[in-house]
Design goal:
Elements lengths: L1 E4 L1 H7 L3 E3 L9 H9 L3 H6 L7 E4 L2 E3 L10 E5 L6
Parallel strand pairs: 1-5
Antiparallel strand pairs: 1-2, 3-4, 3-5
Protein name: Molybdopterin converting factor subunit 1
Organism: Methylobacterium ajmalii
Pfam families: ThiS
């Protein structure tokens, strides 16, 4: 699965994207965040505050309970404000 990181999420992780083979127990966006937090301190730092980082699954905004089955891409980005 391709993972894409934007703005300060990218800066904290230190890369714009990556391709990972996820273990079968990673079934939802929340599972993926938990999995990533265990990959190292840069990931733990990026996802340190639950619910702040937003996700999109195949370019559609997703909630933590959104399933990942069949998805090709998950993007993570900080909340945005208009102006």
């Amino acid at each position: 699965m391709k993972l894409v990181y934007f703005a300060w999420v990218r800066e904290r992780i230190g890369r714009p994207d990556e391709i990972l083979d996820l273990p079968p127990e990673v079934a939802t966006v929340a599972d993926l965040v938990a999995f990533l937090k265990g990959r190292g301190e840069e990931y733990a730092y990026a996802f340190e505050t639950e619910g702040v980082v937003r996700a999109a699954v195949d370019r559609v905004h997703a909630k933590p309970e959104t399933p990942l089955a069949g998805a090709a891409e998950v993007a993570f980005f900080p909340p945005m404000t208009g102006g």
